[in-house]
Amino acid sequence: MPILTVKNLKKYFPVYSGVFQRRTGWVQAVSDVSFEVEKGETLGIVGESGCGKTTLGRCILGLYALTRGEISVNGRTVSELNSARRKELSKNLQMIFQDPFESLNPRQTIRQVLEEKYRIHDGHGLDLEKEIQDLLEKVGLLPETLDKYPHEFSGGQRQRIGIARAISMDPEIIVCDEPVSALDVSVQSKILNLLLRLQETMGLTYVFISHDLSVVRHISDRIVVMYLGKIMEIAGADVIYDHCCHPYTRALLSAIPLPDPGAVKKRILLKGEVPSVENPPQGCRFNTRCPHAENLCREQEPELIAHRDDPAHLTACHFYN
Ligand SMILES: Nc1ncnc2c1ncn2[C@@H]1O[C@H](COP(=O)(O)OP(=O)(O)OP(=O)(O)O)[C@@H](O)[C@H]1O
Ligand SMILES: [Mg+2]
Predict the structure, then answer these.
(1) pLDDT average, residue stretch 35-49
(2) Residue whose CA is closest, atom 2 of ligand 1?
(3) pLDDT tens across 104-127, in order?
(4) Are 194 and 206 in contact (CB under 8 A)?
(5) CB atoms within 10 A of CB 3
(6) Which atom of ligand 1 is the closest one to the Cα of 226?
(7) pTM (2 decimals)?
(8) CA-proximal residue: ligand 1, atom 6 (nearest)
(9) Are 118 and 126 in contact (CB under 8 A)?
(10) Quick one: three-class SS letters along 228-277?
(11) Residue 52 Cα, ligand 1 centroid: separation in angstroms?
């Protein structure tokens, strides 16, 4: 049984405008997204800014009411849980943010930040001091940092605090929303390695959100490529890199710089801007920027269909189905 199932998830936000602030439309942040995640797996989610990655992550965490669809954790539908079970679930599902600084209270020392978690989830009977020392060690921070404030730390250290806070409740699933995007490249790989190590020792399952395909490859087992709130392609990380089918995935991949400066790679430049999610294009959502679009693509939306020789590889494109 998958640890996390997302089924036909839709999340629309109302758009209000005019003097009377009437609702004039909907932002279709996530439309009809389905996937499963196995225990211990890392599912990468990539796509350009505004394609709905954070909204999807927040829906998984139960921070938004779903417009439609269903999310299940360990086979239990989240919306059907009673409040006690929901509290249990909120321990089990945690999030790591892009900028931990924004989510850390500047007036709280790290000790207070970490203790708070235990207080919220009644950590009665725990040896708090020992728990916190253990946590620090797990994320590679020194004990003397406990009484410092967030602004006294570097970006990488702050992210370690964010990770400590996320793992403090011993969760099974962590949604990582661009956890290394704000960090220097050298620090990025340290944090990614820390996440990998914790995954191994704690058996964690990650949903790893990033706009950067090279970061996602490093950490993911499978990758979901999103465009304007929809899934364009899903496949194993290596398949996405070596045999991707969707023209959008190919364009994203072609934008990654090659490690060898002498190597030549043809960059696929996408024309036009990302259309608005309030008024997405008819047919295939990618058709206005796709170098191969034909009439069919403007008229009919392609379904996300599995490949005959690889059932785990799904593509939503008329010409690759
Ligand atoms: N609370 C909200 N109310 C209204 N619209 C929202 C809200 N949150 C997100 N949106 C809209 O939904 C769309 C998807 O946003 P989201 O933040 O999920 O994208 P993203 O893929 O995480 O982008 P980024 O890479 O910039 O973080 C955007 O058009 C955004 O403006
Ligand atoms: Mg985001």
Answers:
(1) 96
(2) 13
(3) 888 999 999 888 877 776 666 678
(4) no
(5) 18
(6) 21
(7) 0.92
(8) 13
(9) yes
(10) CCEEEEEEEHHHHHHHCCCHHHHHHHHCCCCCCCCCCCCCCCCCCCCCCC
(11) 6
